[in-house]
Amino acid sequence: MSAILEFRHVDASYGGATILRDVSFAVGSGETVGLVGRNGAGKSTTLLAVYGVPTTQGDILVDGVPLAGRAHVPTSRGVSLVPQGKRIFPNLTVEENITLGRASRRTGTWTLDAVFELFPNLARGRRRHGTALSGGEQQMLAIARALMAEPALLMLDEPTEGLAPVVIDAIVEALKEIRARGTALLLVEQHIGMIQKLADRYLALRGGKLVGDGPVARLQDRAVQELIAL
Ligand SMILES: Nc1ncnc2c1ncn2[C@@H]1O[C@H](COP(=O)(O)OP(=O)(O)OP(=O)(O)O)[C@@H](O)[C@H]1O
């Protein structure tokens, strides 16, 4: 299996503070990987490192090619991020927000119609403004926008945070559909239940170090749970 995303001995720091230390892992084509760890373990920093937000050392490769210089956007190389806090544009309509994601020149299956089929309530509210949406709809909108770039790997930072159980179920179903279409997922979650429902493999961070990488069934082991202090 070829790696879409690979970290090789990556350190990441904000200012002088080193947050990630010697982190190495790979996400293969079509794989679903859950990244777990307690508050402050470095999960968001790992995703943001792909975008060059913290300062990094070591190599981050997309499709086997290092992300050199950070001048180019990983999205155009097939890696998209749904950031924590969604970051939708409140003054644009649903449809305008979604089409903004189409910046890359990649081609594929995620047309506007296809994302509206995935999230019918966005289709019904396509002319509403971002501010008029519920938290769950905003999350769906952020996912829809990221899909428009036709990612080979979609990274999501706590996509169910603060949402009602029925909305979480809808997002889980959408992620299953995205996965079924062959898109790899790297999912940051505090709740291992979500990762157990969706992922093939888990990665665990503790204090900025990778302390676990294995099949998701191992998340049930008490030794693993203690290690990551969930
Ligand atoms: N912009 C920043 N500047 C300085 N320190 C930061 C910044 N962002 C995060 N940190 C620090 O980096 C560490 C890791 O944060 P990160 O957000 O990656 O953790 P996390 O595992 O995603 O946790 P959470 O679940 O709380 O989001 C924390 O100690 C945090 O305070």
UniProtKB/TrEMBL annotation:
Keyword match Cell membrane: no
InterPro entries the record matches: AAA+_ATPase, ABC_transporter-like_ATP-bd, ABC_transporter-like_CS, BCAA_Transport_ATP-bd_LivF, P-loop_NTPase
Gene Ontology molecular function: ATP binding; ATP hydrolysis activity; branched-chain amino acid transmembrane transporter activity
GO terms, biological process: L-amino acid transport
Matches recorded under CDD domains: ABC_TM1139_LivF_branched (cd03224)
Domain of life per record: Bacteria
Keywords: Amino-acid transport, ATP-binding, Nucleotide-binding, Transport
Name of a matching Pfam family: ABC_tran
Annotated ABC transporter domain residues: 5-227
PANTHER family reported in the protein's UniProt record: HIGH-AFFINITY BRANCHED-CHAIN AMINO ACID TRANSPORT ATP-BINDING PROTEIN LIVF (PTHR43820:SF4)
Similarity comment: family membership: Belongs to the ABC transporter superfamily.
Protein name: Branched-chain amino acid transport system ATP-binding protein
Source organism (scientific name): Parafrankia irregularis
